[in-house]
TrEMBL record:
It is an enzyme of class 1 (oxidoreductase). Its cofactor is Zn(2+). NCBIfam families: peptide-methionine (R)-S-oxide reductase MsrB, PRK05508.1. This is peptide-methionine (R)-S-oxide reductase. InterPro entries: Met_Sox_Rdtase_MsrB, Met_Sox_Rdtase_MsrB_dom, Mss4-like_sf. Keywords: Metal-binding, Oxidoreductase, Zinc. Its EC number is 1.8.4.12. Transmembrane segments: none annotated. Gene3D superfamilies: Peptide methionine sulfoxide reductase. One of its GO terms (biological process) is response to oxidative stress. GO terms for molecular function: metal ion binding; peptide-methionine (R)-S-oxide reductase activity. The lineage of its organism: Bacteria, Pseudomonadati, Pseudomonadota, Gammaproteobacteria, Vibrionales. Pfam families: SelR.
Length: 122
């Protein structure tokens, strides 16, 4: 049984299923700052609100908070980074970093644009 209800193209599968990474500064949401909600591309679970997004200049969309219960954290196999996935379907989102002092919350969810879908709103 497929845990993703949205059909994924090959690029999306490479990142969301196979835990790949899109090239920096290429994602459509890197410099996107409209009001709304970012949802999981695979299952459309709400993950981040636009007010969580900030400009980090790292090349990927960055968020300093998530919608409560939406994102799961797990240590990568190599033990060096913390992977973030959709808590509903397990889709790979990216990684989370702490201690960079880029925002008051001192956390950066570094997310692949390919893993997200934006829904405009208030």
């Amino acid at each position: 049984m497929n845990k993703y209800f949205n059909k994924l193209n090959e690029e999306e599968k490479k990142i969301i299923v196979d835990k790949g990474t899109e090239y920096p500064f290429t994602g459509k949401y890197n410099n996107h700052f409209e009001k709304g909600v970012y949802v999981c591309k695979a299952c459309e679970t709400p993950l981040y609100r636009s007010e969580h997004k900030f400009q980090s200049s790292c090349g990927w969309p960055s968020f300093d908070d998530e919608i409560e219960g939406a994102v799961k954290r797990e240590l990568d196999a190599d033990g060096r980074r913390v992977e973030i996935t959709c808590s509903n379907c397990g889709a790979h989102l990216g990684h989370v970093f702490e201690g960079e002092f880029l925002t008051e919350k001192n956390i950066r969810h570094c997310v692949n644009s390919v893993s997200l879908k934006f829904i405009e709103g208030k």
